[in-house]
Design brief:
Strand 1 and strand 2 (36-37) form a beta hairpin. The chain has helices spanning 45-62, 68-77, 93-96, 103-106; strands at residues 31-32, 36-37, 110-114, 118-124, 128-138, 145-153, 158-162, 166-167, 172-179, 186-196, 199-210, 219-222, 226-231, 265-272, 276-286, 293-298, 327-333, 336-343, 352-359, 366-369, 377-382, 388-397, 400-401, 404-407, 410-413, 419-429, 446-455. It is built from four helices and 27 strands. The strands form seven sheets. Strands 4-11-10-6-8 form a five-stranded mixed β-sheet, with no helix packed on it. Strands 3-5-9-7 form a four-stranded antiparallel β-sheet. Strands 12-14-18-16 form a four-stranded mixed β-sheet, with no helix packed on it. The chain is mainly β.
């Protein structure tokens, strides 16, 4: 049974077929430091990945001559189907890859395939493409296999075909894709199946027939970092969803990232002229009752979302991971044309809004003490790049959590007794929400301030 939180492929940006395989990852009894054990069990990729790593280690020990690619092929081509709870129907290949690993079957794969999966990526109407699968003997002998396509879903007007109905070790199987000029948009998933008697080996595939609509919309041009205004009222409503990824941190729930954006949208084109450590945009304000949700995509194509960083959600594993925030961006960005899209969730009110754009924000906010007033401690808290993320601010007075107000760069702690107090303040900027473990150090865009201050 597939875990509800299990991520779906393909990979963002590069659009490769993923996952490769699936493995047990829910309620797993696991060892802990100190001769302890998880109780009742742990769930997640951190539990599924060790199953796969352990399986690969066993295969490496039993077959020292196998290459890494061959070990991957053995695990991926021999998997068992995965289904939804309460159903016998198999989940799409972009949820399960080759299926749940079966180590006993992988120990005797009979054939190796290269590649182990196929991704044609995004294909437009009228497209033609082909890929080849090389077959190598894994100890099963040269006897022929029957080759067929086991499609799970195929958009109308798209078709895959094979160069031969039979193949054998040492040969190559060509897979051709043809898309009609009037093909329907949608995902195609399934398997190239190789069958010999009771033995079945599977090669998962994926492609998406796309008919992008975002490029048809007029766009405003962003010249560089700064504060900008927009208005979704009266704008077209051509795009309602953005991919990839789909699912995962995007749940289309009231407390999560909205994925049904069927209201009007406004597009802002931004051209990055040279590589950057990061760039992004944050929604700063909106008119009363207006709802707007940002996305970041490659210019003109809603199907080329910049991965999870292009969604309005916090990705920092050390600070606020999974928290919905109206911030989108890119880390280690390459030159090119991008679109910031501000879209209206289903049933939402369109209208005016403002947003801030930044490039190369690698420094944390600035914090300094200001002259205090009676009953108040005042601190200047500013950030000239992506701006202060007020959701990250934590203030303490004499070791106790303190409430604060913030206005035009000044943070104020109220109802503080006269005398000296030990004050600490931690604050991040909006770029920190996009920093994962691919930046130089932990929390590079977070500042901690500590001082003893006097209140009159």
């Amino acid at each position: 049974v597939i875990a509800g939180f299990s991520s779906s492929g393909p990979t963002p940006i590069s659009l490769q077929m993923k996952p490769d395989v699936t493995a047990p990852g829910v309620d797993i009894l696991s060892s802990l430091p100190g001769n302890d054990w998880s109780d009742p069990g742990w769930s997640g990729t951190s539990m599924a990945s060790p199953h796969v790593a352990g399986a690969a280690a066993v295969l490496r020990e039993r077959h020292p001559s196998w290459t890494v690619q061959q070990i991957k092929s053995a695990l991926e081509s021999t998997g068992d189907p995965v289904h939804l709870a309460g159903s016998t129907g198999e989940v799409p290949a972009i949820r399960e890859g080759g299926g749940r690993i079966d180590l006993v079957r992988a120990d005797n794969p009979l054939l190796f395939t290269d590649p182990t999966s196929l991704s044609f990526g995004l294909v437009k109407r009228g497209a033609h493409a082909s890929q080849s699968i090389a077959l190598t003997d894994a100890g099963g002998g040269p006897a022929p296999w029957t080759a067929s396509i086991a499609a799970q879903s195929t958009p109308r007007g798209a078709a895959l075909s094979l160069s031969s109905a039979t193949v054998a070790a040492g040969s190559t199987l060509d897979v051709s894709l043809t898309v009609d000029a009037a093909a329907a948009e949608g995902d195609a998933t399934g398997f190239i199946e190789l069958t010999r008697g009771a033995d079945v080996r599977r090669i998962p595939y994926w492609f998406h027939v796309e008919v992008p609509l975002l490029g048809r919309e007029k766009h405003a041009t962003i010249r560089g970092p700064g504060l900008y205004g927009g208005n979704t009222a009266g704008k077209p409503s051509r795009v309602s969803s953005y991919r990839y990824p789909e699912g995962g941190l995007a749940c289309n729930c009231k407390t999560g990232v909205q994925t049904d954006l069927s209201g009007p949208e406004q597009v802002f084109r931004f051209v990055l002229k040279k590589p950057a450590a990061n760039f992004g945009a944050v929604l700063v304000s909106h008119a009363r009752g207006v709802r707007v949700s940002p996305r970041l995509v490659l210019a003109g194509d809603e199907n080329r979302l910049l991965g999870y960083t292009g969604l309005p959600v916090n990705l920092n594993p050390y600070s606020g991971f999974g928290r919905v925030e109206p911030v989108v961006g890119a880390v280690l960005a390459l030159p090119g044309a991008y679109d910031f899209v501000f879209d209206t969730p289903a049933g939402g009110k369109p209208g005016k809004f403002t947003f801030r754009v930044w490039v190369n924000d690698t420094t944390p906010p600035r914090i300094r003490a200001l002259p205090n007033r009676r009953g108040e401690i005042r601190l200047a808290l500013t950030d000239s790049g992506s701006g202060v993320d007020l959701g990250s601010v934590k203030a303490r007075v004499d070791g106790r959590t303190a409430r604060f107000t913030y206005d035009r760069g000044v943070l104020t702690l109220h109802r503080v007794a006269a005398g000296q107090h030990r004050v600490s303040l931690t604050a991040s900027d909006n770029q920190e929400a996009k920093n994962m473990e691919d930046v130089g150090r932990i929390l590079p865009n977070t500042r901690t301030f500590s001082a003893t201050l006097s209140v009159p």
